[in-house]
Specification:
Length: 118
């Protein structure tokens, strides 16, 4: 099972990448998961990312961190600033829209982790 940080690395590197797909599959083995994490960190470094300062989510508008932080803005008015959602931002139904690989699934998973406290 991927840790939260490994999951973010895999999303950042692209789940369509054959290397990332192989590493994610290998992480299903608990004995390999720590090694997979280190391999993902190395791959991130090779691709020019700093694995110690990862963006968790790209969002194009200003949302301040609050009840459910989701990451760091990569574009929009608050580049580099933390973003999140408040309880008031979440009505009974929400829609999440974006282009392919823009982070929709990542946002939902991070929100679920925030809701469950895990």
């Amino acid at each position: 099972m991927l840790s939260k940080e490994s999951f973010i690395l895999a999303e950042l590197l692209g789940r369509d990448s054959p290397q990332v797909q192989a590493l994610v599959a290998a992480a299903a083995n608990p004995d390999l998961a720590p090694h997979v994490h280190e391999m993902l960190r190395c791959l991130a470094r090779q691709r020019g990312y700093d694995p110690d300062h990862l963006p968790a989510f790209a969002i194009p508008r200003d949302l301040s961190p609050s009840d459910y932080p989701v990451g760091v803005a990569l574009s929009g008015d608050v580049v580099g600033g933390e973003v999140g959602l408040a309880e008031d931002d979440l009505p009974s139904h929400i829609g999440i829209f974006g282009t392919t690989a823009s982070g929709k699934t990542t946002l939902v998973k991070l929100l679920l982790l925030g809701f469950t406290g895990k």
